Amino acid sequence: MLESIRHLDYVVLLCRDLRTMRRFYHEVMGFAIHLETESWIEMRVGSTLLTLSKRERPFVGGVWTEQTASVQLAFRVAPEAVERCYEELKAKQVEIVQAPQVIDRRVWKYWKHRTLFFKDPEGNLLEIYAEIELPTET
Length: 138
Fold this sequence. Notes:
The structure is a single chain. By secondary structure, the protein is of the alpha/beta class. It folds into 2 domains: 1-57, 2,3-Dihydroxybiphenyl 1,2-Dioxygenase, domain 1 (Roll); 67-138, 2,3-Dihydroxybiphenyl 1,2-Dioxygenase, domain 1, CATH 3.10.180.10. It has 2 helices and 8 strands. It has helices at residues 18-28, 81-91, and strands at residues 10-15, 33-36, 40-45, 48-54, 72-76, 96-102, 113-119, 125-131. The longest helix is centred in the N-terminal third of the chain and has 11 residues, at 18-28. It is globular and about 50 Å long.
């Protein structure tokens, strides 16, 4: 029956500070609120819901520590949008981990991306990337 899984419907980011994370994803990233309760906030990103939830359920594991990413989220954009996203994030004083660049030549056979890495307020790693054409090797 597990082979019937075909789509990732939603991702839940477990948050220490739900209000700060809401501000970042809604106001800085511009994701529209789909549903909001006191401890759960859903935002639609394409066909997936990005959900923020308080870390209050006992089965979510240990205590979060500073500068420890829990997840990496990758958002795909058109090639010309990577640089504009970078400039917008800088203007909003978002912590940039790596400015836009073409990924390392060693992995071109797998991915042909221009990437930008940055962090959300709780230290999760975020990526904005675009599929690009790369020169053929001679």
